[in-house]
């Protein structure tokens, strides 16, 4: 009996005293973890990663990394550091701990800026990595101090926008403004922030999709950007805007000085090159101010150049095919919308939309897709006067013996 008891004690000791396994991460693993962690940081661009550790305990692998950012006063006054823990989820996604394991005390100076600094000084502090959840000795956060000082909506948007984890704090700040009969625009901004957080899940998903679009373009990774542009999201790429500057995806590409391949991807996705942000800048303006990529500048100076369109020959052949299915083909009038290449050799394939008008008849909209093997698909929808479709869509399929030269570049 004593021998069995001794064995049990020894086994228990081996389990309790088993050493924690640790290993070095490979450069590829570090790059993967870093890219995933950056997406979860408030100010990812300024973050510097160092002192990685990765160990296994109780059957699970977990890591820690030191993340360094410039302090709110700039490099002359030191930096803000925090140690963040991370792990891989069951689906392979990287999960970053909500709170740092430890952090340097760079928060109190930011609170002092909020108490006596100007709007621009507070904005600069936030841009340089200030801790937004910092509190003074009375327990007041930056947002509550801003409310007591009756400052404007620009700071409300900076400190509260899309931060649904501080709903109680937002409500406190709103009550302060209302009690003091404060800035009406700030009251509206806080009301909007609270309404956003109380909105249905679809609004959250749109915000999430918008952020993903913006973050992917900021990375400058062509394949990742191409992939997300091809996905069906709650907000189309052409409508994505950065909340702070009202930048579209081309503005963001310009700020990152991205090359013409990515610029063309965004143009093809419908992102407007002539759009202006809140500073009245077009993407081209930003490239030129930064003396950026010259090929991107040339492309934005003439964004239509190189786009694919139906040639006169292509239009004539497809119109002849459509006429075969019209009740009064002779009097039909065709209006073409811009066509784009669909697959294969762009000279021999394409997709587009054409509107067909026949006197005394409802108008029709035809979608056409030409495959590179010469197969032509046509779908026809009849429209009411208000543009709504009547009935279903009729589909026609045929084959063109010669499909060369139907699509060309501008």
Number of helices: 15
Low-confidence stretches: 1-20, 72-78, 341-348
What is the 3D shape? Answer: elongated
Which percent range describes the beta-strand content?
A: 15-25%
How helix-rich are the residues, as a percent range?
A: 25-40%
Question: Radius of gyration in whole Å, from Cα?
Answer: 29 Å
Ordered list of secondary-structure elements with their pairings:
Blueprint (H helix, E strand, L loop, with lengths): L1 H15 L4 E2 L4 H12 L9 E10 L2 E11 L8 E10 L5 E3 L5 E2 L3 H10 L2 H9 L14 H7 L4 H8 L6 H13 L4 H15 L2 H19 L2 H8 L19 H7 L4 H9 L14 H7 L4 H8 L6 E3 L1 H12 L9 E4 L13 E8 L6 E7 L4 E9 L5 E11 L7 E3 L1
Question: Overview of this structure, please?
Answer:
- The chain is an alpha+beta fold.
- The chain has four domains: 75 residues; 92 residues, Ankyrin repeat-containing domain (Serine Threonine Protein Phosphatase 5, Tetratricopeptide repeat), CATH 1.25.40; 100 residues, Alpha Horseshoe (Serine Threonine Protein Phosphatase 5, Tetratricopeptide repeat); 102 residues.
- Helix content is 39%, strand content 20%.
- It contains 15 helices and 13 strands.
- Strands 1, 2, 3, 4, 5 and 6 form a six-stranded antiparallel β-sheet that branches. Strands 8-9-10-11-12 form a five-stranded antiparallel β-sheet, with helices on one face. A two-stranded antiparallel ribbon has the order 7-13.
- Strand 10 and strand 11 form a beta hairpin.
- Helix 6 runs parallel beside helix 8, helix 7 runs antiparallel to helix 8 and helix 10 runs parallel beside helix 12.
- The longest helix is centred in the middle third of the chain and has 19 residues.
- The N terminus is likely disordered.
